[in-house]
Fold STAS domain-containing protein.
Amino acid sequence: MNGNGVVRRADGAIEVNGALTFETVPQFFAGSGDWLDGGPEALTVDLKNVTRVDSAGVALMLEWRERARAAGRELRFANLPEQVRHIIRVSGLDSAFV
């Protein structure tokens, strides 16, 4: 792996590692069905180890949230990097991440 990836922690949370950018979004999207379509429990996606984010990464986060909803799951994001918060704020997406 090139430093970008997803790990399911013992507490059930999903830990995202590396860059969430235009270049890496396809890789993250391709593997997300494995953990998004699981059981009905709420799911936490921890972004504390995300090193870089662009608008494609934020779009992927919105897609994850929609896919989780479609599967009947609640999805929460933890430890949003300031870069993500900034993109959300300037894009007017605050309500999508409440």
